[in-house]
């Protein structure tokens, strides 16, 4: 665990070191380069025992690379038995046929794409790239993204859809990109709700109605899932067999509520205008999903799309300045920001500490090891195993 802690502390160190440069643009480029190295090396060369889903994707790639018939057929062939979305099947087929048969290819390629997409998104939204990376690391975002490889590709597409289309009011282009993202992970379909939620005026009354609606939806969630033919899903059966509320779900609800509540508190303190509708749509969808998590914790995958946005929004509030029409002194304003950063930072660290201590199987982060390229046999070649 000490290795992970020291690794996380390198990001604030990069942020501080960048201050030696006078120009802000130079600081940003310096941070981006070092953050790319830190993220890509740590996650791109991890052992296949690190992070839950790593051995499964590794094993899937290895198994497919063994078959000559698979390598000879079209990369656009669809295999229903693979149980993966079509876009991901095409990607794996392309990598095996034209890049490398080594199963580690999927790990290093996905790490490269995830790192580039996150840095692209972060540099568009914030000035301090390194500190944003730090919060996304302790906020569990990076650990999840490098773990859930298929969904991470969908998240990369969502970044483009949100920044280049939804924020600019180009809803048709946004929806088309989200449909493209579903080719890598079907959970992206839920993101089609954002343009609809964006149309709602941000008021307390509307927010209360939406959250109450999410609560009512939770009460009849299993009936609705059955209606859509999902009663045979493993996730459905596991959730139905639980006699109590999910501890993980309640923890996620508390953390999401705390983070969004802190953002709203900072907004009220330093702004007089209404919350931006894009931000409002993200907040409402994230809270609505979080309300369902104690009953059906597997919906946390939906909020994996939204957490990067929420962290960036939080940090933008932390670094923003009060408007002239708001009666707040600079000392009060800076104090509120410092308290918010420390508070949310402690909440994020506490979550990782709790998970690592009581549920290490959720992440498989410790012990951290680099991949041994000299070893040509791995236990995880015996795919699949759960």
TrEMBL record:
<keyword id="KW-1133">Transmembrane helix</keyword>
<feature type="transmembrane region" description="Helical">
    <location>
        <begin position="29"/>
        <end position="45"/>
    </location>
</feature>
<dbReference type="InterPro" id="IPR049458">
    <property type="entry name" value="EpsG-like"/>
</dbReference>
<keyword id="KW-0472">Membrane</keyword>
<feature type="transmembrane region" description="Helical">
    <location>
        <begin position="174"/>
        <end position="196"/>
    </location>
</feature>
<keyword id="KW-0812">Transmembrane</keyword>
<feature type="transmembrane region" description="Helical">
    <location>
        <begin position="208"/>
        <end position="225"/>
    </location>
</feature>
<feature type="transmembrane region" description="Helical">
    <location>
        <begin position="104"/>
        <end position="122"/>
    </location>
</feature>
<feature type="transmembrane region" description="Helical">
    <location>
        <begin position="278"/>
        <end position="296"/>
    </location>
</feature>
<protein>
    <recommendedName>
        <fullName>EpsG family protein</fullName>
    </recommendedName>
</protein>
<feature type="transmembrane region" description="Helical">
    <location>
        <begin position="339"/>
        <end position="358"/>
    </location>
</feature>
<feature type="transmembrane region" description="Helical">
    <location>
        <begin position="245"/>
        <end position="266"/>
    </location>
</feature>
<dbReference type="Pfam" id="PF14897">
    <property type="entry name" value="EpsG"/>
</dbReference>
<feature type="transmembrane region" description="Helical">
    <location>
        <begin position="134"/>
        <end position="162"/>
    </location>
</feature>
<feature type="transmembrane region" description="Helical">
    <location>
        <begin position="6"/>
        <end position="22"/>
    </location>
</feature>
């Amino acid at each position: 665990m000490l290795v992970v802690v020291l690794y996380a502390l390198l990001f604030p160190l990069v942020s501080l070191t960048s201050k030696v440069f006078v120009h802000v643009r130079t600081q940003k480029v310096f941070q981006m380069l070092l953050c790319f190295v830190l993220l890509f090396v740590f996650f791109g060369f991890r052992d296949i025992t690190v992070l839950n889903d790593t051995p499964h994707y590794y094993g899937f790639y290895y198994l497919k690379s063994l078959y000559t018939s698979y390598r000879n057929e079209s990369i656009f062939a669809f295999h229903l038995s693979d149980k993966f979305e079509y876009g991901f099947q095409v990607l794996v087929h392309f990598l095996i046929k034209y890049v490398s048969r080594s199963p580690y290819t999927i790990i290093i390629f996905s790490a490269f794409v995830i790192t580039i997409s996150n840095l692209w998104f972060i540099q568009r939204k914030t000035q301090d790239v390194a500190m944003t990376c730090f919060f996304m690391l302790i906020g569990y975002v990076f650990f999840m993204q490098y773990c859930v490889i298929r969904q991470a590709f969908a998240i990369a597409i969502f970044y483009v859809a949100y920044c280049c289309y939804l924020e600019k009011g180009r809803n048709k282009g946004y929806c088309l990109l989200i449909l493209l993202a579903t080719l890598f992970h079907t959970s992206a379909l839920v993101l089609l709700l954002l343009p609809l939620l964006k149309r709602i005026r941000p008021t307390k009354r509307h927010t209360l109605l939406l959250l109450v609606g999410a609560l009512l939806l939770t009460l009849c969630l299993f009936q609705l899932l059955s209606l859509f033919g999902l009663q045979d899903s493993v996730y459905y059966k596991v959730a139905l067999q639980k006699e109590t509320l999910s501890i993980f779900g309640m923890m996620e609800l508390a953390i999401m509520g705390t983070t969004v509540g802190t953002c709203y508190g900072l907004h009220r303190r330093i702004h007089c205008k209404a919350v931006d509708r894009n931000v409002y749509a993200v907040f409402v969808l994230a809270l609505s999903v979080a309300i369902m998590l104690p009953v059906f914790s597997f919906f946390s995958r939906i909020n994996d799309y939204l957490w990067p946005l929420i962290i960036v929004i939080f940090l933008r509030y932390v670094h923003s300045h009060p408007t002239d029409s708001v009666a707040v002194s600079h000392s009060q304003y800076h104090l509120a920001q410092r308290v918010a950063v420390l508070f949310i930072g402690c909440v994020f660290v506490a979550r990782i500490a709790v998970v690592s201590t009581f549920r290490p199987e959720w992440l498989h982060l410790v012990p951290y090891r680099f991949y041994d390229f000299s070893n040509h046999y791995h236990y995880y070649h015996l795919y699949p195993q759960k």
